[in-house]
């Protein structure tokens, strides 16, 4: 991560191409924005930490329905472009596979209505900049009974699995590429394999969450907030590492965002990076 004016190391590269967020001064490459350094072959650029989400095909996103109109839903996913979910791009109740009719259009609010939170996948990017989503899989759909967190999208990297069952904590985690993170108690008896193929509302506990489940979700949520405050990548591994340090030091969920514990996490992270470099 670099700040404005920081020198970007290019000594190990035989020539480089200046990308977005960089400038050459006195023969050295320096950052013109605060963000993360990205290298693609010889191209060096800086991706800002604070910016609107820029969608890519196949991204897993979390959004909130803002409007039901025509044969589509409009969603807010924090993107620069307009986002829509077509009626033809969702699974009908009961998993029926057929053409959508005028009756289905009338009953659209029985599937998703204004204010509903849901997970989806970016299906296509149109020439006018608009984004089309789809939920044609059992793992996508409405999200209920959990906690939604907003973090900079740059801290969430694309990975193999964005739906994760953290069995040691008893919670289900969804990492949205648009910087929205969903945490909910895992339904008793569900497995990691099931959580990656079942709708999130089916994996969430049907009964009201117990005190232990609320404590686990709160601890995971504060771990995500702590990682975001330190501009560290957010992943299941980094979240579990924070919770591990928390357990080792006997820190409760309500004390995870205090200055003393943040300092302890910085010390732990620096030691791990030092050991890795050695």
From TrEMBL:
Cellular localization per UniProt: Nucleus
Ranges for region Disordered: 190-211
Keyword RNA-binding assigned to the entry: answer is: yes
Matching InterPro entries: Exosome_RNA_bind1/RRP40/RRP4, KH_dom_type_1, KH_dom_type_1_sf, NA-bd_OB-fold, S1_domain, S1_RRP4
Bilayer-spanning residue ranges: none
Keywords on record: Exosome, RNA-binding
Lineage: superkingdom: Eukaryota
Gene3D superfamilies from the UniProt entry: 2.40.50.100, Nucleic acid-binding proteins
Q: Start and end of every S1 motif domain?
A: 56-136
Q: Which Pfam families match?
A: KH_6 (PF15985), S1_RRP4 (PF21266)
What protein family does this chain belong to?
Belongs to the RRP4 family.
| The protein, known as | G921 protein
Q: Which organism is it from?
A: Coccomyxa viridis
Name of the gene: g921
